[in-house]
Amino acid sequence: MNVDIQAINERISKESVFVDKIINEVGKVIVGQKYMVERILIGLLSNGHIHLEGVPGLAKTLTVKTLSATIQTKFQRIQFTPDLLPADLLGTLIYDQSTGKFKTRKGPIFSNIILADEINRSPAKVQSALLESMQERQVTISDTTFPLDDPFLVMATQNPIEQEGTYPLPEAQIDRFMLKLSIGYPNKEEELEIMRRMTKEEIPQVKPVVTPKEIVRARSVVHDVYMDEKIEKYIIDIVFATRNPQEYGLSELKELIAYGASPRASINLTLASKAHAFLKHRGYVTPEDVRSIGMDVLRHRIIVTYEAEAEEITAEDVVRKILNKIEVP
Questions:
Q1: Of 185, 217, 249, which residue constitutes the final position of a domain?
Q2: Are 154 and 112 in contact (CB under 8 A)?
Q3: Closest CA to 173 of 143, 135, 205, 145
Q4: Boundary-marking domain end, from 217, 252, 278
Q5: How confident is the model at residue 162 (pLDDT cuts 50, 70, 90)?
Q6: Spatial separation of the C-alpha atoms in residues 26 and 155, rounded to whole Å
Q7: pTM of the model
Q8: Which of 11, 107, 288, 328 is deepest in the core (most CB within 10 A)?
Q9: Are residues 176 and 287 in the same domain?
Q10: What is the pLDDT at residue 163?
Q11: Are residues 148 and 266 in the same domain?
């Protein structure tokens, strides 16, 4: 198959100009956190949801809110609490006395970017209601199904240190998140800039620089990013090494992995690698794209055994060993 890489490159270079505009605009408010901003854009361009894990105060909510303001999208922040009901999320039927009929009142899920704050604070039935909208991109209220707007992106935050009054997320739900991001503290220089910026009388504001239509169009362009067969096989090897590590010279991991990554990992690693190349204004995927996004795609899809937990070995340690072992094409 002959592929005109140069033509794809020129097209991607032209179509991805808006990425820098978004990053520069978000940078007016958010200091550092380049990793988080880029990964959220990858989710947006790949039509995948994102799970953000980090201690309070790391600007997770502010970053999502700021980003949505640059895209002229409808944004909703939903605070998940133990008494939240599915109807609070999706909407419900209410009786209209003037007409004597029931009418649908849509909930906050009918938006473009949803921030599900502290998702593990709500019980299973609320999480399963969110699951339908994430997976099917539709909502059922009574006997009527409503399609959700495009783009539709769920970003869920979770506080890893406070587990009192929380409900663990089912593995099936965690697997539906394309990426799981581990957000760290800023460095000294960044924190000094945050302190100066956020203690001024006027906090910087952002303006819209791109429309939802442009994001939807960019998604179709991301699919056209070229991926060589060697890179495809590299992705398959990485995912299969989580299931059968002994076949890849990683016998020491066999007793540490209870369940490897699902086929969603292969699909999402492919899409995310293409989106990562798009962010770098490139029309083709390199092994470095796969390696840089691999941890975010895999860290929540590998379940380690009790033996691994006893030895304080995490899923991240397992992914790191696999990425370092599998031969780069």
A1: 217
A2: no
A3: 135
A4: 217
A5: low
A6: 17
A7: 0.85
A8: 107
A9: no
A10: 63
A11: no
Domain ranges, residue 36: 18-217
Give pLDDT tens digits for 212-235.
888 888 888 888 888 889 999 999
Give the whole-angstrom CA distance, residue 169 versus residue 45.
25
CA angle 110, 114, 117 (to 5 degrees): 130
Instruction: Determine what percent of the chain is predicted with pLDDT higher than 90.
Output: 14
Residue 182 tokens, joined = 């581990």
Pair (243, 210) in one structural domain = no
For residues 68 and 138, state if they share a domain: yes
pLDDT of 281 strictly over 90: no
Q: Residue 235 belongs to a domain with what CATH number?
A: 1.10.8.80
Looking at the structure, tell me whether residues 94 and 162 fall in a common domain.
yes
Residue 75 CB-density burial (10 A; 0-12 exposed, 13-18 middle, 19+ buried): middle
